[in-house]
Amino acid sequence: MREIFLNIFRIKELRNKIFFILGLLVIYRMAANIPLPGVDVLALKKLFEDNAFLGLLNVFSGGGLSNISIVLLGVAPYITASIIMQLLTTIVPSLERLYKEEGEIGRQKFNMWTRWITLPLAALQSFSMLSLLRSQNILGDITPFTMTVIIISATAGTIFLMWLGELITEKGLGNGVSVIIFAGIVSALPTDISRFVATWDPSQIFTYLLFALVAAVTIAGVIFVNEGQRTIPVAYAKRVRGAQVYGGSSTHLPLRVNQAGVIPIIFAVSLILIPTMVANFLAQSSHENIASIALSVSAWLQNQWIYGSLYFFLIVIFTYFYTAVVFDPVKIAENLQKQGGYIPGIRPGATTAEYLYRIINRITLAGAFFLGSIAVLPFIVQGITGINAFSIGGISILIVVSVVLETVKHIQSQLTMRSYESF
Questions:
Q1: Measuring CA to CA, which residue among 310, 314, 299 is closest to residue 264?
Q2: Rounded Cα gap, residues 181 and 265, in angstroms
Q3: Are 1-198 and 201-423 the same fold in CATH?
Q4: CATH architecture entry for 1-198
Q5: For the domain 201-423, what is the CATH code?
Q6: Is the pLDDT of residue 281 over 80?
Q7: Which residues contact 173 (CB under 8 A, 6 or more apart)?
Q8: C-alpha distance from residue 78 to each of 53, 105, 244 (Å)
Q9: How many alpha carbons fall within 13 Å on the CB side of residue 151?
């Protein structure tokens, strides 16, 4: 590990990439601390302590929401737009061809449409969130002009973070959106540690130990799932061309237990926040029936078991969905057949695709249920101890560990590539 760390700083290109990303994260944290005007800080702090939904949303805004900063929405609208576009690929065949078959140009068009969808979503979510905060007397009596300026500023903040995330992704050291969320979570650690020290209660030692145990199990579980893989043997037939013999070798195809990484967690949290936000917004409606229905939906979603079950279900669904997007058995089977490769005991072509599809479904089932179980484990502990803040900590651990593992793999691949180039 020490040698890898030293090699990172020996290679100029890799070192510059890391410093560039760190510089972008510093800019992001500066933006997250530029507040919007007219905020009652004490009322805001109390609202976040009493509302687990807002606390969860604050995790994905990197603390920007609790400060009512210009990036109060974080990258949530961009994630929502990505979910919409990914869902459309399963419905619209032309969009699926654009994303999967037209190469880099197709993906650039796909990403451009995702950005365009992000813009109205950011404006709508900004208006909904500000209306909610106004109803809780967090924002003062602001004029329509001021409200418009704040919405434009919040929308611009989301677009700015989206741009920073894409710049990070271009450096090839991980997903930029995940890295931004990771930076927001890590930045809150000093405050959380100081709060824990200030509220230390020796009589709660067993509760603290239980939290530590759950955290250790969560970290170990995420590492276990992310690193687990099923290896499929692949053999290549011998081919004779003139006096030369080609092929005849054997290798393996690694199928990860969790092909989707941290994306299902981000997608699930983003999607589960939408009905809660809409319900909270409509609860302030002047129409009595609409307000009554919205309050009922909000109360229903506040139920810990319903919320946890829905969260578990969405993680499982999105794990399968994103795996289907990034892993195409038919394409892999075609490539193997073109290269003269085959899986021993399995016919090339459609039979190979069916075999891979069956294998990936089975291991994804195990990975999805394991990931979902780890995600809802803090809710179970919350129900036992009655402490509301730990569910946010569980989600934070999931994202932090997954992003760290992904980033380390990207760095190692960069080091391996350059070590080959040096020969």
A1: 314
A2: 12
A3: yes
A4: Orthogonal Bundle (1.10)
A5: 1.10.3370.10
A6: no
A7: 17, 18, 21, 407, 410, 411, 414
A8: 19, 20, 53
A9: 20
Angle of helix 263-282 relative to helix 304-326, nearest 10 degrees? Answer: 130
pLDDT of residue 291: 73
Report how far residue 339's alpha carbon sits from residue 236's, in angstroms, rounded to the nearest whole number: 8
What are the CB-based long-range contacts (under 8 Å, 24+) for 348-354?
A: 353/329, 354/329
Query: What are the residue boundaries of the structural domains of the chain, listed by start?
Result: 1-198, 201-423
pLDDT at residue 391 in the model: 47
Q: Coil, strand, or helix at residue 305?
A: helix
Q: Which is nearest to 157 in space by CA: 65, 58, 31? A: 31
Q: Which long-range contacts (CB under 8 A, 24 or more apart) does 413-422 make?
A: 414/11, 414/14, 414/172, 414/173, 415/4, 415/7, 415/8, 415/11, 415/14, 418/11, 418/13, 418/14
What are the angstrom distances between the C-alpha of 141 and each of 7, 71, 155, 181, 375? 56, 21, 21, 32, 39
Tokens of 206: 């067993």
Strands 239-241 and 229-236, bridge-based pairing: unpaired
pTM: 0.73
pLDDT in tens, 103-160: 677 778 888 888 888 888 888 888 877 776 776 666 666 777 777 888 888 888 888 8
Helix or strand holding residue 303 (H, E): none
Asked whether 301 and 307 are in contact (CB, 8 A), the reply is yes
Taking the C-alpha atoms of residue 154 and residue 159, their distance in angstroms, rounded to an integer, is 9
